[in-house]
Design a protein that fits this description.
Arc Repressor Mutant, subunit A; globular; Nucleotidyltransferase, domain 5; 15 strands; 5-stranded mixed beta sheet; 3 domains; alpha/beta; single chain; 26% strand; 324 residues; WH-like_DNA-bd_sf
Length: 324
């Protein structure tokens, strides 16, 4: 019976947190009405959250008679999240609060990636920010279940289960994915009210990367290999062209063929192409060619985005928060 009571209490606490996260500043009466909980129950739980420092009192609101209600909101810094981007030659990191506001940030460059320096970064962040609740790490490499499978840059990480290694560094939950999965999650998080299936494509100096959302879920495949377009057989000749003329190659056909592949296999509602100078002035032509080779019902909405960094950070934050 005691276990059941604790379980019900935890459920109600989580409901109150979720409601306040969505609504912002609210009174006990509003919580009681919206969640169908008795006022004494809400009072007890809200007071408990205030005592723990999780809620902040925001003063009283206007009254139409009787006592003015006291309003409360979640303390945005009660939970903090460490977000790390590991790139070719550089590591960028920032600490965000529950409102996605940056609390701390920094970066360092490297010629050869050092796992010890990553460990030190995480330890230092935990030392400075006692309310860190989770760590989210993105890397420009093929990652499967926390293990780096393919990488042209991070040889020292190949075959390593990084979250398992970091258990010796921190007891915080750690999420470790390739950069495109975070990018895709961040893109979808900003669009999820209207999009339940999404493909992202990004061409940079490391090649072409992609990510996939299916039925409102990030989809990586059985081994994390999903949306690795660089392994498609027709890609070689495009890489050869990009090597010869990296600034003037016409990428219209490349993107058209990739969108055609995804339309036939996944049938997404949207494809987002992240900005690359080679895409300048090409979007309408890509749309026209896709319309010419695909049935109208299978034609996804095709968008160009310049929000790479914003979406990447949003995805890191979303995944860190999901495990805290």
């Amino acid at each position: 019976m005691a276990e059941e009571s604790v379980s019900i209490k935890q459920i109600n606490l989580d409901r109150i947190r979720a409601f306040m996260d969505q609504e912002g500043s609210v009174s006990k009466s509003q919580i009681s009405r919206r969640l169908g909980l008795s006022f004494p129950t809400v009072t007890r739980l809200v007071d408990e959250l205030c005592s723990a420092g999780e809620l902040l009192e925001q003063g009283t609101g206007t009254s139409t008679g009787g006592r003015c209600a006291c309003f409360y909101e979640l303390d945005p810094r009660f939970h903090l999240y460490l977000l790390i981007q590991i790139e070719d030659g550089r590591v960028c990191w920032n600490v965000k609060d529950m409102r996605e506001e940056t609390v701390d940030h920094g970066e360092f460059c490297f010629k050869s990636f050092s796992l010890e320096r990553l460990d030190s970064l995480i330890r230092d962040a935990i030392q400075r920010h006692r309310r860190l609740s989770a760590v989210s790490i993105g890397i420009a490499a093929l990652v499967s279940h926390g293990i780096v499978e393919e990488s042209t840059v991070f040889d020292c990480l190949k075959g390593m289960n990084l979250p398992e290694h970091l258990k010796d560094v921190t007891c915080l939950p750690v999420v470790f994915e390739n950069d495109m999965n975070y990018l895709t999650m961040g893109c979808w998080t900003g669009k999820q009210a209207s999009v339940n299936s999404l493909i992202t494509l990004f061409l940079n100096k490391c090649g072409m990367g992609g990510g996939m959302i299916i039925d409102n879920r990030l989809w990586t495949g059985a081994s994390g290999f999903c949306t690795e377009p660089c392994f498609l057989p027709f890609m070689d000749r495009y890489w050869e062209g990009l090597d010869r003329q990296p600034t003037v190659t016409d990428v219209t056909e490349l993107y058209t063929r990739l969108i055609q592949v995804y339309a036939c296999t996944v049938n997404p509602s949207m494809v987002v192409l992240y900005h690359n100078p080679l895409l300048e002035g090409r979007l309408d032509d890509i749309r026209s060619r896709c319309a010419a080779c695909l049935p109208a019902k299978a034609l996804p909405s095709i968008e160009l985005s310049k929000d790479y960094q914003k979406d990447y950070e949003r995805g890191l934050f979303a995944m860190a928060r999901s495990v805290s």
